[in-house]
Amino acid sequence: MSTTSALFAGLMSGTSLDGVDAVVADFAAPHPRVASTAFLAYPADLRDALLALNAAGHDELRRAAELSVRLASLYAEATLAALRNGGLAANDIAALGCHGQTVRHQPALGYSLQLNHPALLAERTGITVVADFRNRDVAAGGQGAPLVPAFHDCILRDDGEHRVVLNIGGISNITDLAPGKPTRGFDTGPGNMLLDGWAARHLGTPYDAGGEWGAQGQVVPDLLKRLMAHPFLAQAAPKSCGREEFNLDWLDAQLDRGIAAVEVQATLLELTARSIVEATLRECGQPDTLAVCGGGVHNAPLMGRLAALLPDTRVVSTADFGVSPDFLEALAFAWLARRCLHGEPGNLPEVTGARGPRVLGAIYPA
Ligand SMILES: Nc1ncnc2c1ncn2[C@@H]1O[C@H](COP(=O)(O)OP(=O)(O)O)[C@@H](O)[C@H]1O
Ligand SMILES: [Mg+2]
């Protein structure tokens, strides 16, 4: 590995279970420059196997171990693709930050579990791997999530305007960047996860492309009211959530007979937009700009509802600030790997609720 290189790689595979985002970034300048990217979609059987492991089931340990091996192979493939796309070699890269695939997130019980096999990833790529970013924060009494706000603070803070960064992944999380105030952040609740699950059940596709199906339905007010009553949504920050809180079993329990599937999808979209906006206004006040990243940015009706619910806020993609919305989180894990190697804290205690700043991650040398 290169111990002096400013090039770091990052891998993100989030709760949406869509696949793995890979990025190589140059941290030589104050603002990181993306050198190359790659995305590998999860094959349908891998997504199904990971989804199944999010709930209790038979022979979990073997399944988890075998999936970790399979994931590490895919992570290596994505990393090598990003290197190829940038004309780079493994020894150009100082380290690779790999988030892993969350299957259980239970900070109140003392753990957050990401499937990963960092030793195998180091072996396959020849790059030093930094992994297990969340558990040190959890051990220090924090939520272990979200971890991206520290990076948002680093690249998107502006003295002249109140910005909120919104990441719409499987779960949605926001970062409050108010001039003169400490950075705050938390999970707001569902992002794409329920929309994806419902689309998979009724369309047989991993997601509702462009949000077009949901846009044909009408919101069902009674159902929306029941969904908005989920206790997580009213909780004060710091807070984080996962598939434990929001899943199709929970949704099924809220449904009345006779509601058409397309109306449920429209209502889920409204739930996602409203829960984000209500949490933003309650915890951050009204921002000048809402900078959106994550796959939800491609759901035009969802972006439209956010803009309509925040008429005095400029709602834009982070692309407007020169940062690809699809690779911002992977970039954050490249940055977190660099922080770890330099012995610098990666968490913000105000965000996660940890007792103090901590160096996050475990290092697997190349
Ligand atoms: N063209 C699109 N139309 C609608 N939704 C999209 C589109 N592209 C991506 N998405 C949504 O974004 C999700 C992936 O977002 P991502 O930011 O990778 O989430 P995570 O971090 O949880 O993996 C997909 O599952 C899907 O819901
Ligand atoms: Mg993803």
Automatic annotation (TrEMBL):
Gene3D superfamilies, alphabetized: 3.30.420.40
Positions contributing to ATP binding: 14-21
Catalysed reactions, semicolon-separated: 1,6-anhydro-N-acetyl-beta-muramate + ATP + H2O = N-acetyl-D-muramate 6-phosphate + ADP + H(+)
UniProt keyword annotation of GTP-binding present: no
Its EC number(s): 2.7.1.170
Coiled-coil intervals, chain numbering: none
Protein keywords: ATP-binding, Carbohydrate metabolism, Kinase, Nucleotide-binding, Transferase
CDD domains: ASKHA_NBD_ANMK (cd24050)
Pathway assigned to this chain's UniProt record: Amino-sugar metabolism; 1,6-anhydro-N-acetylmuramate degradation; Cell wall biogenesis; peptidoglycan recycling
Gene Ontology biological process terms, A to Z: 1,6-anhydro-N-acetyl-beta-muramic acid catabolic process; amino sugar metabolic process; peptidoglycan turnover
Top-level taxon in the UniProt lineage: Bacteria
EC category: transferase
Family matches, as InterPro entries: Anhydro_N_Ac-Mur_kinase (IPR005338), ATPase_NBD (IPR043129)
Molecular function in Gene Ontology: ATP binding; kinase activity; phosphotransferase activity, alcohol group as acceptor
Similarity-based family: Belongs to the anhydro-N-acetylmuramic acid kinase family.
Functional description taken from the UniProt entry: Catalyzes the specific phosphorylation of 1,6-anhydro-N-acetylmuramic acid (anhMurNAc) with the simultaneous cleavage of the 1,6-anhydro ring, generating MurNAc-6-P. Is required for the utilization of anhMurNAc either imported from the medium or derived from its own cell wall murein, and thus plays a role in cell wall recycling.
Protein name: Anhydro-N-acetylmuramic acid kinase
Species for this entry: Niveibacterium umoris
